Amino acid sequence: MVRFENVGMRYGMGPEVLRDISFHLSPGSFHFLTGPTGAGKSSLLKLLALSHRPSRGLVTLFNKEVSTLVRDDLPAMRRKIGVVYQEFRLLDHLSAMDNVALPLKIAGAKDARIYQHVAELLEWVGLGNQIDAKPPTLSGGEKQRVAIARAVINRPQLLIADEPTGSMDAEMGLRLMHLFQELNKIGTTVVVATHDLDMIQRFGNPVMFLKDGLLTTRGPEKLPRHFSENGA
C-alpha cells in the first residue's frame, strides 16, 4: 500500500525536515504517527496525501512510484485517499451535506444514493440536525466532524488523519476513532497523527514515532510519556 525508501524532504533551500525515512504500510494496517511538536509529522502526512513530493528517495503508493506520476495521474490517485486536515478545508458556501457529498459526486455516484449515505453518516457523527448548516455557523468540533465524514464517505483505500479528535470532547473523539476502526476492518489502511498518548495506549496499534526528522516504529508501550515543545 505505502512504501518509503530513504526519503528526505526540505522546503526550498532550507534544511531537511525529514531525513532518511524508510517504512512500509501493509494494506489494511492501522498506525498512529506521533512525536514532539516540530518533528515533521505534517510534512510526512503531506507526502502520504500526494500534496508534496520528496526531495530525495522513493515514495510508492498503490504500487506506483510517486516521482514517475504525471500531473494527469494525480486526481485518480488522490481519490483513493481520504484526508482529515487540522484546518478542515471545508467550502464555506456549501452545506454540511454538500461538503460531505463532494467525494461521491466527483466519483460519479447517483444523487439519491449520495444523500442517503451522507445523511446516515452525519447522523452517526452527531450532526443529523446540522445537515443544512454552512461551515461559518458551525463550531470547531462540528467542522472537524464534517471534515472527517467527508474523508471517509467514499471508503478510501488510505485514510490520513491529522489530529482528528483535537477539537472535540473525549466521548465524541472515541466514537470517531471507532469509526476509523470499522473502516480499517473493511480494508482501509489508516494513519492517525496525534499527540494524545492516552488514546494511543488505549487502541494499542503500532506507532510511528518521529523526532528531529527521523522515524522509528515501536509498540505503544515503548513511547516516552511526555513530549516537550522543543522536541526533547
Spell out the blueprint of helices and strands.
Blueprint: E1 2-10, E2 16-25, E3 30-34, H1 41-48, E4 56-61, E5 64-65, H2 74-78, E6 81-84, H3 96-106, H4 111-124, H5 140-152, E7 158-162, H6 170-185, E8 189-193, H7 197-203, E9 207-211, E10 214-218
Parallel strand pairs: 3-8, 3-9, 6-7, 7-8
Antiparallel strand pairs: 1-2, 1-4, 4-5, 9-10
Helix pairs in contact: 3-4, 3-5
What does this structure look like?
This protein has about 230 residues and is α/β, with parallel strands linked by helices. The protein has a domain at about 90-155. Helix content is about 30%, strand content about 25%. It contains seven helices and ten strands. It has helices spanning about 40-50, 75-80, 95-105, 110-125, 140-150, 170-185, 195-205; strands at about 1-10, 15-25, 30-35, 55-60, 65, 80-85, 160, 190-195, 205-210, 215-220. The strands form two sheets. It has a six-stranded mixed β-sheet with strand order 6-7-8-3-9-10, with helices on both faces. A hairpin with a 5-residue loop joins β1 (about 1-10) and β2 (about 15-25). α3 (about 95-105) crosses α4 (about 110-125) and α3 (about 95-105) packs parallel to α5. Residues about 230 have low confidence and may be disordered.
Distance between the termini: 32 Å
Give average pLDDT, whole number.
Answer: 88
SS-derived structural category? alpha/beta
Radius of gyration: 18 Å
Strand order of the largest sheet: 6-7-8-3-9-10
Q: How is the biggest beta sheet arranged?
A: 6 strands, mixed
The topology string of helices and strands comes to EEEHEEHEHHHEHEHEE
Helical proportion?
Answer: 25-40%
Shape: globular
Give the number of DSSP strands: 10
Sheet-strand content, in percent, reads: 15-25%
Uncertain parts = 228-232
In oligomeric terms, what are we looking at?
A: single chain
Helical element count? 7
